[in-house]
Amino acid sequence: MTHLPAYLLLQAARDGQGIVNTKRMFVEEDLRAGRLVCLFEDSVEDVPVGYFLVRQPGPMREPLKRFIAWLKRQAQTGSAPAAARV
């Protein structure tokens, strides 16, 4: 996987140099014009969405336990701090 500006990746795909994974709205005109072809489509509804808690193995300190418990409560109630909402 290459990390380049999106416009360079799209131009490379248009030139037949590879494939690009992007939102359909960015390539709709290219698809209609035949410059690009859609290899497959994913629906957002088909992809599970969520957050993952990742930590180092070993015992958890009490502040971390409280934070994880709070985070789980927030997820269950569907509420989140305004700064965390997207």
Automatic annotation (TrEMBL):
<dbReference type="GO" id="GO:0006351">
    <property type="term" value="P:DNA-templated transcription"/>
</dbReference>
<feature type="domain" description="LysR substrate-binding">
    <location>
        <begin position="8"/>
        <end position="75"/>
    </location>
</feature>
<dbReference type="InterPro" id="IPR058163">
    <property type="entry name" value="LysR-type_TF_proteobact-type"/>
</dbReference>
<dbReference type="InterPro" id="IPR005119">
    <property type="entry name" value="LysR_subst-bd"/>
</dbReference>
<dbReference type="GO" id="GO:0003700">
    <property type="term" value="F:DNA-binding transcription factor activity"/>
</dbReference>
<dbReference type="GO" id="GO:0043565">
    <property type="term" value="F:sequence-specific DNA binding"/>
</dbReference>
<dbReference type="Pfam" id="PF03466">
    <property type="entry name" value="LysR_substrate"/>
</dbReference>
<comment type="similarity">
    <text>Belongs to the LysR transcriptional regulatory family.</text>
</comment>
<protein>
    <recommendedName>
        <fullName>LysR substrate-binding domain-containing protein</fullName>
    </recommendedName>
</protein>
